[in-house]
Amino acid sequence: MEFSDTGNRAIINLVSNIPFAIGYMILPIYAYHIRNWSNLQLAFSISTLVLISYFWLLPNSPRWLAVKGRETEALEILNNVAKINRKPKPDQLELTVILKSCKDEEISNANQSNISTLGSICQTFKNIGNGYMNLVRNRELRKRSFLLWFVFISVTLVYYGLSFDTSFITRDPFILVFFGGLVELPGYLIMVPMATKWGRTNTVASSFFITGVVCLIVVVTPQDYESLRVFFAMVGKLFISGSFAVIYLLAAELYPTSERVTGLGCASLIGRFGAIAAPYIVDMTRAVYSDFPRIIFSVTGIIAGLVTLFLPETKDTELLDSMRNLERQASIIEGNAPITKIVRRFSQPRVDSSISNPQNDSTEVHNV
Questions:
Q1: Is the model more confident about 89 or about 359?
Q2: What digits encode the pLDDT tens for the residues 203-218?
Q3: pTM over 0.85
Q4: What letter would DSSP give residue 362?
Q5: How open is the CA angle 267-270-275, to the nearest 5 degrees?
Q6: What confidence tens digit (pLDDT) does each residue in 156-193 have?
Q7: What confidence score (pLDDT) does residue 209 get?
Q8: Are 40 and 49 in contact (CB under 8 A)?
Q9: Angstrom distance (rounded) from CA 37 to CA 336
C-alpha cells in the first residue's frame, strides 16, 4: 500500500484480499483428500514455506526506510521501481531532499551507532515497547487506537460468528467451507467502488449496518423459508467479509508510517479476542434460543457501525509519515469524520429564506 498513490490505494489493498478467499476455498479440497488431521496440518505448513521467498523478493517500503533515516536504500528501491515501470529516472538530488524530509525526528540513532550485540538486542526490545506505548501516549493516536480496537473486535466476532453459525446451510463440512470462501469474492469486489467513491469509514459503517440488518431478517424469517434464511445469511457473510478488508485499509491510513506496522499488528491482535469469543457465543447461546447468536451479531454489527462513524475519513488524503505530521493534519482529517459532518449539519441554525434573500423583499415591494 505504501508503494501506491492516493487514488489506487483502495483498489490495491482490497483486490489483494482475493487470494485469501481463494485459499479459503482450497482448504476444504486439502481436507477432502487428506483425512488425517496431523497430515493435513503438515500439508498446510509445507505449503506456506514458499512465503519465505518473500524475504528476498519483496522490497522494503521506501516511505518506511525514509522515516527510519535510510535514504540511500529508499533511493535505490525507487530507482528500481522507475526502471520496472519504464518511467524516467527521477532527479536524484530532489528525491533525496524529499526522502530526508520524511525522517521522523523521534527515531533514535541506535541502529547507526556502534554498540554491542547485547546492547542492540536490548535496544530492539526497548524500541518495540516504545512503539506500543506511542499508540496510547499521543492523544490523537490514543483515540484512533481505542476506536479501531473496538471495531476490530466487533468485525472478528461477527465474521467468525457467522462462519460458525452457518451450519444450517448444509451438513457437508467441505461444501460449507468452500461456499464460505466463495461468497467472500464478490464481497471484496463490491468494496472497491464503495471505498473509492464513498470513502473508507462510510463503507465500513454501512457494511456493519447491512450485516446487522440481514442478521435480524434471518431471525424473524420463519424456519419454513429455509432458502430465504440461507440467502440473507450469505449476504451478511458477504458484507462482513468486505468490511473486514476495508478496516485494514482504513487502519493503515490512520496510522503514520512510523507506527503503522505496530498499530495494525496491535489492532489485529486485540481483534482476535472477538474471534476467540465467537465459537463460545454460537455454542452456548444457541442452546437457549436457536437464533440467539444472530441477535448478538446483529447488535454488535450495528454498534460497531456507529462507532466507525467517529473515525476520520482518509479517502483522498496523503499517508502520514510521522507523529509530527499526525498532529499537524489531525484537525483537517478529523473534520472529515462522518459523525462530525452529521453533527455539523444538524447543529447549523436554519435561516428563513425570505429574510436571507433580499430579492424576495424587492419582489414584494414591486408587487405592492
A1: 89
A2: 999 999 999 999 999 9
A3: no
A4: H
A5: 115
A6: 999 999 988 876 666 788 888 898 899 999 999 999 89
A7: 96
A8: no
A9: 49
52, 75, 261 from 56: Cα distances, Å: 8, 18, 19
Query: Which residues are CB-neighbours of 283 under 8 A, at least 6 positions away?
Result: none
Measuring CA to CA, which residue among 103, 6, 13 is closest to residue 62? 103
Measured between alpha carbons, how far is residue 353 from residues 210, 344, 356, 358, 361 in Å?
37, 20, 5, 9, 11
Contact 2, 78 (CB under 8 A): no
Rounded distance between C-alpha atoms, residue 117 and residue 131, angstroms = 21
From CA 60, how far away is CA 70, in angstroms rounded?
11
Among 87, 349, 314, 114, which Cα is nearest to 200's? 314
pLDDT on residue 111: 45
Largest CA distance in the chain: 94
Q: What is the DSSP string of 271-306?
A: HHHHHHHHHHHHHHHHTT-TTHHHHHHHHHHHHHHH
CB-neighbour burial class of residue 50 (10 A; exposed 0-12, middle 13-18, buried 19+): exposed
Torsion sign over Cα 9, 11, 16, 20:
positive
Between CA 245 and CA 200 the distance in angstroms is: 10
Integer Cα distance of 260 and 12 in angstroms? 17
Band of residue 107 on the pLDDT scale cut at 50, 70, 90:
very low
